[in-house]
Amino acid sequence: MHVAPRAANAWPLKPGTILFAAGVTGDRSQDYARDRRIVKTDEFSSVFRLRPVQRTAHFVLYTRVNDLAHARLGVVAAKRFAPRAVTRNTIKRIARELFRQTALPTIDCIVRLSKPVNTKAGPATTTALKTALRVELLRLYQSQQLPVVGP
Questions:
Q1: For a disulfide at 76, which of 33, 51, 112, 146, Cβ 3.0-4.6 Å?
Q2: Which is it for strands 72-76 and 107-113: parallel, antiparallel or unpaired?
Q3: How many other CB atoms are there within 10 angstroms of residue 45's CB atom?
Q4: What is the DSSP pairing of strand 54-55 with strand 59-65?
């Protein structure tokens, strides 16, 4: 059986383009590598044991100081509050994006969806929903942000 050769890439790189590994940019603070995630059940449990730090209309933020050199994030979006996977993935994507862009102290953060954001009857995501979620999550992160020291 004869297999045709693969076609060449139709999008050649421009001269001087610097390639990085997947998920890594020139600035390491912008990544979301595995060491910046809360992934183990006992890590989630140890943060959930503490009281919620901040609440918004749809989210609850739990935090705990960690011994690492950076903050870590865990996101919990239950199916009962966001019945569609598209909506849950959007919530997680926005939470991770804002986490990468915010300077946080060395804490473990868990963002938990605590109220329904939409139903199966309506659209899975809308621009208005994304904007509202972004505003709420940004408010949560800014409540934990490092204070800026001026000259």
A1: 112
A2: parallel
A3: 9
A4: antiparallel
Structure tokens at 99: 């986490």
What is the domain class of 34-144 according to CATH?
Answer: alpha beta
pLDDT in tens, 68-78: 888 899 999 99
Strand partners, 75: 111
Q: Rounded to whole angstroms, how far apart are CA atoms 87 and 73?
A: 19
Give the max Cα distance, the chain: 71
Please write down the HEC assignment for all residues of the chain. CCCCCCCCCCCCCCCCCCCCCCCCCCCHHHCCCHHHECCCHHHHHHHHCCCCCEECCCEEEEEEECCCCCCEEEEECCCCCCCCHHHHHHHHHHHHHHHHHCCCCCEEEEEEECCCCCCCCCCCCCHHHHHHHHHHHHHHHHHHCCCCCCC
State pLDDT tens for residues 22-66: 433 334 445 677 888 888 888 888 888 888 888 999 999 999 998
Selection from 50, 78, 52 nearest residue 66 by Cα: 50
- Residue burial 66-88, b: 16+ Cβ < 10 Å; e: rest: beeeebbbbbbbeeebbbbeebb
